[in-house]
Design goal:
By secondary structure, this protein is of the alpha+beta class. It is built from ten helices and 13 strands. It is 41% helix and 28% strand.
Length: 291
């Protein structure tokens, strides 16, 4: 069918200009190539589409009926190209994103909101989920991922990071001796996120300690970790934006304030064939510039 589509476009140009030579010049092809495609098209359709002499080209009755369909097809293709071109000058359409739930209250949302205000004709459909989306299968334009990225056929760029705090409920904190270093927390119960390993890295003034922890509860949702942490079921590593209010009100305690939990890098990930002028690329560049 691909070869037939090219032949149809050549056929339409011959009809429009009235000769093989003129069509060949217009399309930057040789007359023999034009003649070859017309002959192949006639073989495919089983019809004589054009009558030609040394001086003239005319449509057969079958060719005339066929030409109407070809012209409609080319007009539809032209309209589609025009639509996409207009999106580049005044972007509009739908853009589908996925993000971890930890970012539902984050600075990244503010950047996306600024983008939406700057481009009011782009409709943003954002799915907050801690289950990693299959970008190609699910028709996702951009996904924001936290932490190390798997090798894949996708493209990516850093757009920020998640600052994380180690927290727990006051009742749990009182059940243990006051910790002075990350290693003291090895035997505490933690609440584990399925998507991450059971180890966390802590930093302080050039020091680096890795804690491998045990967990009674393992979940696939950061929001669930937050809820179980409030109930005193374990230590949790959560984003600072997620727990700031709870720390202010005393519902949660910041454990080991002198040690910093290693931040998670945030990356925008997208299919390789997204074009430079697309609104998906526009958002990626916007987030990257603001990071």
């Amino acid at each position: 069918m691909i070869n037939e589509l090219k032949a149809m476009a050549i056929f339409a140009e011959v009809v429009k200009l009235g000769s093989f030579k003129a069509a060949a010049s217009s399309l930057n092809l040789s007359p023999s190539v034009v003649s070859y495609h017309i002959s192949k098209l006639e073989e495919s359709t089983g019809s004589a589409l054009l009558y030609r002499s040394t001086r003239n080209v005319s449509l057969s009755s079958e060719g005339e009926a066929f030409y109407q369909h070809v012209r409609n097809m080319l007009q539809a293709a032209h309209q589609g190209m025009t639509l996409l071109s207009s999106q580049q000058s005044q972007p509009f359409g739908k853009l589908k994103l996925t993000m971890p739930t930890a970012l539902s209250r984050s600075l990244l949302n503010e950047r996306i909101a600024d983008f939406a205000l700057a481009y009011p004709k782009i409709d943003l459909h954002i799915d907050y989920s801690d289950t990693r989306s299959r970008i190609i299968d699910e028709g996702v334009d951009i996904t924001i991922r936290a932490g190390e990225l798997e090798d894949s056929d996708l493209k990516s760029t850093p757009v920020g990071e998640i600052n994380r705090l180690l927290v727990c409920a006051p009742d749990l904190y009182r059940k243990h001796s006051r910790p002075t270093k990350p290693k003291d927390l090895t035997y505490w119960h933690w609440i584990k996120l399925q998507q991450l390993s059971n180890s966390r890295v802590f930093l302080r003034e050039g020091q680096r300690q890795t804690v491998v922890f045990n967990s009674q509860i393992e979940v696939n949702s950061v929001e669930a970790i937050y809820q179980y942490c409030l109930k005193g079921l374990g230590l949790a590593v959560l984003s600072d934006s997620q727990v700031s209010n709870e720390l202010d009100t005393g519902k949660l305690i910041h454990v080991l304030k002198d040690w910093k939990v290693e931040p998670l890098t945030l990356s925008a990930v997208w299919p390789k064939n997204i074009q430079p002028g697309s609104h998906a690329r526009l958002l990626i560049d916007y987030l990257k510039a603001e990071s």
